Model the fold of this input.
Amino acid sequence: MKKLLVCYFSATGATKRLAEKIADVLCADIFEIKPAVKYTNEDLKWPSRTNRSFLEMKNKRYRPLVSQKLSNVDDYSTVFLGFPVWYNTAPTVVKTFIEENHLDGKEVYVFVTSGAHTVDKSIKDLQRAYPRIHFIGAKRFSGRFREKDLLDWVS
Done:
């Protein structure tokens, strides 16, 4: 029987809390996408045009290194992929994870954290970039998500 996986990138902890809750509700395995070089508060300052996150996002081909690769991706048929919305889309480190772990053919549910942006552009960008992945659904949560909203979505 195939297992469920919740994998996530979290720069400030909001996405991590949400991912842990989803994994708990679904009795799923969990995997944190960790950049090889952690993002500092300076790297994340919005709306600076000189910080690390902006410069990475500006270069569409750039892929920051991640500290570890998922060793057993074939064990999972369904993946819940979470991240904060950066510049209205998925952070480049999430793309590194997708490309290194070959999610082709998997069912992927995307969940994002954002206080301002919707999930719409993030999911469209991912669908366009990775047409062999079956993106099933997507949901945005704020940093103060309501547990009922989470339960409704995962059910």
Summary: The two ends are 19 Å apart (CA to CA). The domain at 3-154 is CATH 3.40.50.360 (Rossmann fold).
